[in-house]
Every structure is written in C-alpha cells, then in structure tokens.
Design a protein that fits this description.
By secondary structure, this protein is an alpha/beta fold. It is about 40% helix and about 15% strand. Bound molecules: pyridoxal-5'-phosphate (PLP). Pyridoxal-5'-phosphate binds next to helix 4 and helix 5.
C-alpha cells in the first residue's frame, strides 16, 4: 500500500553521495595520517586551524573535541564561574545552555524573534546586569543573529559576546562570516553540520590572542608543558584523522553552501504559492547557509505524520525549549515564560535541504507539503 503508492523516499539528510564524490581524496588523506601514526593534534590539526581561521576571517583557531566543548572551553577561557550570569536563548540545541550550568553559572534566557528564530536583541539588552559575564548568542539554522544590536547591548558594559556558530559556519552578516563578529565563535564538525567530520569535532575561532592561548591550554588539561598544570583544564582535542577529513571537505564547503541555498530558493518559490505555510525569513543583510530549512505550519504534527507516510524525511528542531527540560527544572522555568520559543517548538518542521538533493526529490517534497495543506484548507 503506502510504499507502492509513494515509491519515492527522500531522506532528511543523506551523507553518502557527498562521500562518494570525494572518496579517493578522503582515503588518501586518512592513509597519510595512518602512516604517521600521529593521532592527537599535530600537523593536520594545525593546518586545519589555519585554514578555518582564514575562512572565518579571524586570526586564531583552536581545534577541540566537539562543538559542545568549543562552547564550554570558550566560557572557561572567559572565566565564567559560579554566580555569574550568561544571557542566551531557550530555543537552541541543548549544549548551548548546559555548558553554562556545567560551570555553575546561571543561564538567563531571552525569547526569540519569531521570524528568524534567533534571540531578540531588545530582550537581551533588558537582561544584562552587573552579574552578566557573557552573552552567548546562537546563529540558528544557518542564519546569523542580530549582532550589531546585541554587541551594542554588551558593549555598554564591556561584556564579551560569544557566538554559538555550530550551525552556521560560512554564514555572513553584513559581509562578515560567522565567528568573526563577537569575542569568539564556536564551531561544530558533527557529521550533520555543513562541514561535518567522521565523528565528533569542534573549533574555537577568535581574534583575541589571549583567549586563544587560554583555550589551547585548557584543551590539554590546563598545562603548557606536559605534566605541569597551571589551571584545571579538560581533555578536548581534535583528532588528526578528523582534521585530515575536514581539510578535504573545507575546499568544497562554499559550493555545498551554494547547493543548499539553491534548494532553499526552490522551496521558497514553490511553497510561497501555498496557503498556511511560513517559509524561512532571512534578513536582507544576511546570507544563510541553511543548515536546516525550517517551515512553520499550524498543524505541524499532522504534517510531520503525513510526510513520514509519504517517505519524506523531516524533523523538529527543537520539540522542547530548554527552560522546559527536566534537567533545568531547578532554574524555575514554566510554560508561558517564552511564548515565541514555545510556539516555534510546536509549529516548526525541517525539510531536506542537503546539497545533493535531486530535482525529482525536491519536487516530491513540495508536492507532499502542498498536498497536505490543500486537504486541510
Ligand atoms: C550541534 C550544535 C552544538 C553542539 O555541537 P556538538 O559538536 O554536537 O557538540 C551546539 N550548539 C548548536 C546550536 C548546535 O547546533
């Protein structure tokens, strides 16, 4: 039945065609590392740090074990500690907020702008107090947040703005790349990000040499020289194997971003003809890299169900805003605190947008969404 009626299957993300297109080069790069048997940090990691710094338009880059650790180590390097406050958003991936609480600091949440899903700068500026140690802004789904207004709110008190750019490597805001707009940017190389490795990985990018230096020490247990520890750090290093893979992929990254943008433009065009769906809004001064293509519909759960029946991969980012997570109950959050984040959690759905999507697949996604909306109209 359903499978005969709907023979097409479209995955939300399929990494296989990308791998096939670079298989030989990846194989050679991995073999090069294997023949040296040097797996921790080293030349490949240094080369990647240099190239990512150049790509993002900053002076320094520090390879770490994950995007989560990039955030944690940046906050540690900035001296965030117990009793401090860090202003951020409740509508993001878990680790944005968990890195704050892991240091004993308090996340102070500001609701989002419902058009972009990024934090609302007016709300941020109202929450800055004498206890605010940093503002941790998230560039969600591939679009940079309103950095000028946020930097202005921070600048009055000299508070560092940290960019969680885990979903937005390469995105531009008024011509400048993600990670070059604040005190530091945090990148993730998790496989589903626009620049994904073959496992976990992350990087901190910054123009500030002392911040970079602090992060470099903190990622190797807090010592400059082996077995001599100045501060208590952690073990969070980027593997040489990941760096080798990422160096091969980085050369193609802008082309892949372009592929995502073309797919997004196609969806924008086709879906704006349908009633009952809100397409992503990108500020005119922004260039999104569409880590996710996220639409908004009132009957989201029913649409998700229908798409799944038809073999169209889709998912919800994120079903529960962080102030309503069980583990953060101690912060006292309750339903109604952040209405826009809660509404976004109920109404948004991500569609397949990866660069290698075929024309027939995209058309099938659009037909499936429109078919659902017309039946409901
Ligand atoms: C993926 C992601 C992270 C965490 O990155 P990991 O590499 O998975 O640890 C943090 N913040 C945001 C917004 C992310 O999308």
């Amino acid at each position: 039945m359903a499978s005969n009626e709907h023979p097409m299957k479209v995955k939300l993300l399929d990494l296989v065609p990308q791998y096939e297109s670079i298989r030989d080069e990846i194989g050679a790069a991995i073999d090069e590392v294997l023949s040296t048997q040097q797996f921790i940090l080293g030349k490949k990691v240094e080369a990647l740090e240099e190239e990512i710094a150049r790509y993002c338009g900053v002076k320094h880059a520090v390879g770490v074990a994950s995007g989560t650790d990039a955030i944690l180590l940046t906050l540690m390097a900035l001296g965030v500690k117990e009793g401090d406050e860090v202003v951020t958003t409740p509508y993001t991936f878990f680790s944005t907020v968990s890195c704050i609480t892991r240091l004993g600091a308090r996340p102070v949440l500001a609701d989002i702008d419902p058009r972009t899903y990024n934090v609302d700068p007016d709300r941020v500026s109202k929450l800055v107090t004498r206890k605010t140690r940093a503002i941790l802004v998230v560039h969600l789904f591939g679009q940079i947040a309103e950095m000028d207004a946020i930097s202005e709110a921070a600048g009055r008190s000299g508070i560092p703005v940290v960019e969680d750019a885990c979903q937005s490597i390469g995105a531009r805001y008024k011509g400048k790349r993600a990670g070059s707009l604040g005190a530091a940017g945090c990148l993730s190389f998790f496989p589903s990000k626009n620049l994904g490795g073959f496992g976990d990985g992350g990087m901190i990018v910054t123009d500030n040499p002392s911040l970079a230096d602090a992060a470099r020490i903190l990622r190797v247990h807090g010592g400059r020289e082996k077995y001599y520890h100045d501060v208590v750090g952690i073990n969070s290093r980027l593997d040489a194997l990941q760096a080798a893979v990422l160096l091969v992929k980085l050369k193609r990254l802008d082309g892949w971003h372009e592929g995502r943008r073309k797919n997004a433009a196609y969806y924008d065009r086709e879906l704006s003809k349908a009633a009952g769906v809100t397409i992503p809004y990108v500020e005119p001064h922004n260039e999104s890299v569409y880590n996710q293509y996220v639409i908004r519909v009132k009957e989201r759960d029913a649409l998700r169900e229908r798409l799944r029946e038809r073999g169209v991969g889709c998912d919800v980012y994120y079903p529960v805003p962080l102030h309503l997570q069980k583990c953060f109950a101690f912060l006292g959050g309750k339903p109604g605190d952040f209405p826009e984040s809660e509404r976004a959690a109920r109404e948004t759905l991500a569609l397949p947008v990866y660069p290698e999507l075929g024309a027939a697949e995209k058309e099938y996604v659009v037909t499936s969404v429109r078919d659902f909306l017309e039946r409901r109209a």
